[in-house]
UniProtKB/TrEMBL annotation:
Statement: the UniProt record of this protein carries the keyword Protease: no
InterPro entries: BBE (IPR012951), FAD-bd_PCMH (IPR016166), FAD-bd_PCMH-like_sf (IPR036318), FAD-bd_PCMH_sub2 (IPR016169), FAD-linked_Oxidoreductases_BP (IPR050432), Oxid_FAD_bind_N (IPR006094)
GO molecular function, one term: FAD binding
Family: Belongs to the oxygen-dependent FAD-linked oxidoreductase family.
High-level lineage: Eukaryota, Fungi, Fungi incertae sedis, Mucoromycota, Mortierellomycotina
Superkingdom, taxonomy of origin: Eukaryota
Cleavable signal peptide: 1-22
Transmembrane segments: none
Keyword field contains Signal: yes
Descriptive protein name: FAD-binding PCMH-type domain-containing protein
Species whose genome carries this gene: Actinomortierella ambigua
Amino acid sequence: MPLSLFQLAILISATLIALVAAAAPDLDPTKNSGRPDQRPPPPPPSTPRLKCKCQPNQPCWPTPSTWATFNATVSGRLIATTPVARPCYRPSYNATACAAVQQGYHYETWRQQQPGAFQYTNWELGPNGQGCLLNRSSTGSCDQGAVPVYTVKAATVDDVQATVRFAHQHNLKLVVKNTGHDLLGRSTAVGSLSLWVFFMKKIQVVDAFVPEGAPIPSEENTTTKGVGAVVLEAGVVWMDAYKAVDEHNRTVSGGGAQTVGTSGGFCQSGGHGPLSPSLGLCVDNVLQYKVVTADGALRVVNAYQHADLFWAMRGGGPGFGVVVEAVYRTHPAVTMSYFQVMVSSEDRSLLAKVLRELYARQIEWSNAGWAGYATVNRNYVALAYMRPNSDVASARKTFGPLVAYARGLGNLTLEQEIYSDFPSYYALFLNMTSLVPEINAGFGSTLGSRLIPRTIFETDQGVDKLANTMLQVQDESPPSTDRYAIVSVAGGAVARGSSKETSLHPAWRKALVLVLVVGGWEESLSWKDQLKLQRTLTKATDKLRAITPGSGTYLNEADPNEPNFKQSFYGPNYKTLKGIKNKYDPKGLFVCRLCVGSDDWNRDEMCPRHH
């Protein structure tokens, strides 16, 4: 499969199939909804005493009989997990099984249903590149790599609680996986026990949800009057959630790819996507979580119960507990207008002019309620923008000047220029996901990213600086990482969202766009060259960090080698978040890559940093 197609697939699956809508006053998530004021949580306690996680080659590792007893407590749902490509290796070679692996290997919908597979295969490899990838089966050995040793295929909350207690009791490295759509590798680890929640699929749309513990509504007290909501179990993906709310003539602010989970790290990390500029980020729409914490207890977490944990889990990322149920506010259904175009040329200087014009129009488009995505490489610029409750005439009026400007430059090719309307958000989402290449997973990938403040776009000097910086980023990136995306999902309701009620990095409220620098490679690339590519991408993305001091990025789509992850991911909230982490997870059961508290652990989160 050509590398360029893979890179495009990453962009589409991560963000570019997302659909966005414009702000509507009656849908403003920042209006007072009757929740109590969110006071800053108490100062963090001292860091607890930590110890190394138990590994399979150590005496502390559970015996086979202990595993068998545990299996009985989860109704036989414990799986001895192996890398998916193992049937293609000797001595485990099986022609029929290997053919099935080869057929499904590069499809995300197949991978999400395999306990030992993840969307991007670099996260299946161990710290020295050891693993079991299909492209190496003819010459290499099949090592377990970072694929978990055991997996619990959870079906109930009891399964989740039993798994958490078992991992806590035996000091095991515990990871939580839904679909494996994870760009930071937080859902897998060497020598780990995996809690797989993908099959917990219940969905309920309710007309008047009231968080547990809220004052009972009455004639005197209307502050906690119920609101429309959708209740989602841990394994639900956004495609299914959108369908469910659409059937009730509602919509919900969620992710932009069909295999992104609704209730895990996506929303806890902020959760941008199709409707963010109109309805707010996912964290702005959370009404309640049900969470299994490190002690195995099931806690109802909202503005009235465990309010500190609720604050932390709205922007502080994963690692505070296992969400088994999330409740999100729903909003009235909208119609959608859509525009797309691709501009290509072998003359890079002409494309640079088109891009400069695109940057200069970002504020105008955002203020008008449009949001969307632009994919850029050395030979083309592809745009896709959306707006709710609008029409084709409005789209032509908004984007016609840019199209005319590009045509006026000459020596440019414009194609795939489309203006269209859709009867609902779900209809547009279905159309966009149908454009995703079928072969879109089973490769290596990495990202660099940065939130670009609105102030950059307010002056000609700022626009010029961004345009010149993006050219430098491309010039200093290796060939496989010269593509980037302008993700226009901030502004509007995101800017109006609360930095007091949520722990989201305040940079989100000041940003207009998120820039993603995309790297991808075939499995045949050597481990040494993979590491070199990642270092080069980090260095290239430094150019964006340099022109946006004090900003940050989206921790779900970020560089796994982010130089200062505490500032870039969490900003001024990190110290308070860490105190809450220590309160609910004092022994680091849920420690994960670049999550809150990971700075107390070594790079693979297996031993305390100063052990």
